[in-house]
Specification:
Layout lengths: L10 E5 L4 H12 L3 E6 L2 H8 L7 E5 L5 H15 L4 E4 L15 H29 L2 E6 L12 H21 L4 E8 L7 H4 L6 H9 L9 H12 L10 E4 L7
Parallel strand pairs: 1-2, 1-4, 2-3, 4-5, 5-6, 6-7
The chain binds nicotinamide-adenine-dinucleotide.
């Protein structure tokens, strides 16, 4: 007997959907029945992922998540294409090269804060009123296990993700009475282009082994792991879950 997908009939905007975790979340959402607008700054990557799916399930939107006008245009493009919006996944984000906090240039600090934190403002400003009007909607924000459990050398990144987690909880409290849920996912280091920065600029077997050793379940996270968690949080199965930071970290935060 075939079951309907967990996200059957839902429409999502997923930011940073052109590679890494965003691509994994997009794949899972479409497998589970959702329509997806891929809100991505790289035309090459965004279009490439969108092309892997049927045209009525996936559409690429070229935009920068730090730009309020682009959010307005993304909402319009989503409504024009799919007729509705139920879910926003704030996934796009960047990391600085791991190293002593005082060595991170000011320009890197500004870039991290701008790309990781400001999209939550932009999406709340543009999407929350739409969700309030329809009396339902879900935000899933990709934070990091470094938010609840910061460690040396990724301090500014952890700070930006601490803001993502705190803003998620604040919005959950504020928007809950309007039927809107907001949750954060906290991944451990994942198998994406970010690995070399997390390792200080060079991706080595020794560096990877050091990170893996600190994870009780003995591996990095995968885009599938994060896709599965995001799908559950976005689905009606999580209809009474709001304001949480869900670790998807193989037990890393226990150490
Ligand atoms: N990979 C990890 O180890 C890890 C761990 C914890 C949390 N995270 C978080 O997961 C999220 C995804 O990370 P990833 O590893 O998949 O990264 P990635 O670099 O592989 O992919 C990020 C995607 O976001 C897009 N993007 C970047 N800036 C953008 C902008 N201004 N507007 C629109 N799109 C933009 C990029 O083009 C890219 O396609 C980030 O928020 C990251 O902080 C990653």
């Amino acid at each position: 007997m075939s079951h309907p997908g967990r996200l059957e009939g839902k429409t999502a905007i997923i930011t940073g959907a052109g590679m890494g975790l965003g691509e994994g979340i997009t794949r899972k959402f479409i497998e589970e029945g959702a329509n997806v607008l891929l809100f991505e700054i790289s035309a090459e990557h965004g279009q490439n992922v969108a092309n892997q799916f049927a045209k009525d399930k996936a559409a690429f939107f070229k935009g920068d998540v730090t730009n309020l006008d682009h959010w307005e245009a993304a909402l319009k493009a989503c409504l024009d294409k799919f007729g509705k919006l139920d879910i926003v996944v704030n996934n796009a984000g960047v990391v600085h090269r791991a190293g002593p906090s005082h060595d991170v240039p000011r320009s890197e600090y500004d870039r991290i804060m701008n790309i990781n934190v400001s999209p939550l403002y932009q999406s709340a400003k543009v999407i929350a009123p739409y969700f309030v009007k329809q009396k339902q909607g879900v935000f899933v924000n990709i934070s990091s296990i470094s938010a609840p459990r910061p460690r040396p050398n990724l301090v500014w990144y952890a700070g930006s993700k601490g803001a993502v987690s705190a803003i998620t909880k604040g919005l959950a409290a504020e928007l809950g009475p309007s039927g809107i849920r907001c949750n954060a996912i906290c991944p451990v280091v994942a198998e994406t282009g970010m690995v070399s920065s997390v390792l200080g600029g060079t991706d080595t077997l020794e560096g990877r082994a050091g990170l893996t050793k600190a994870i009780p379940l003995g591996r990095f996270a995968t885009p599938q792991d994060i896709g599965n968690a995001a799908c559950w949080l976005a689905s009606d199965e999580a209809s009474f879950i709001t304001g949480i930071e869900l670790p998807v970290d193989g037990g890393r935060a226990l150490n």
